[in-house]
Design brief:
Elements lengths: L6 E5 L12 E2 L23 E16 L2 E13 L5 E2 L6 H27 L6 H27 L5 H17 L7
Parallel strand pairs: 1-3
Antiparallel strand pairs: 2-4, 3-4, 3-5
Helix pairs in contact: 1-2, 1-3
């Protein structure tokens, strides 16, 4: 079998936004284009494209004396243009849809994260609880990204690719109330 497409997805997971790195926030009406992939291709890679995306998470707590009485969070799915690349003469619409779905999977886990954070009750261990949820979400996101690439054979398995596109769209709809704005 001739290997037609080889894709690699790298997921960067950040806690908070501490960098001046250029980012694009996930938006359901704005899909990735090849112009968004600004890094130079890795000459030592067999990949056609590399997508860098991840979850940014920040929080603040309100205290009264030493007691935590409230907390707020921000959770977003980001794409990192200056760390994402593709080979111009090999990138096509099929591969771009595969890469977009990696970003959509990141958004799905942002929504799951927001849902879990919403269920937390203010207490003196809230920071540790948020950290635990954050760790678990990142692990689940990484596992799903790997499973997606394995089952689609990095987009080569067209039937599996279609399944994943439908599956992720359905999962996103289930958590629509948590979507990134």
């Amino acid at each position: 079998m001739q290997l037609k497409y080889v894709i690699v997805c790298v997921v960067f997971l950040f806690v908070g936004m501490t960098s001046n790195e250029e980012t694009m926030s996930w938006n359901e009406t704005q899909k990735l284009t090849w112009a968004d992939f600004k890094a130079s291709p890795d000459p030592n890679s067999d990949a056609v494209a590399l997508t860098a995306s991840g979850i940014t998470f920040g929080y603040s707590v309100k205290t009264s004396g030493r007691r935590i009485i409230a907390f707020t969070t921000t959770v977003e799915a980001h794409f990192y243009p200056n760390k994402s690349w593709y080979i111009k003469d090999r990138g096509d619409d099929h591969i771009l849809r595969h890469e977009q779905l990696h970003f959509d999977i990141t958004e799905l886990y942002v929504r799951k994260f927001k849902q879990q954070l919403e269920r937390l009750v203010v207490n003196q261990n809230i920071k540790e609880q948020m950290a635990q949820v954050h760790t678990a979400i990142n692990e689940a996101l990484g596992k799903t990204q790997k499973e997606y690439d394995a089952q689609t054979n990095h987009s080569i398995n067209v039937e599996a690719q279609r399944y994943w596109e439908s599956f992720i769209a359905d999962e996103l709809k289930k958590l629509d109330e948590y979507k990134s704005q």
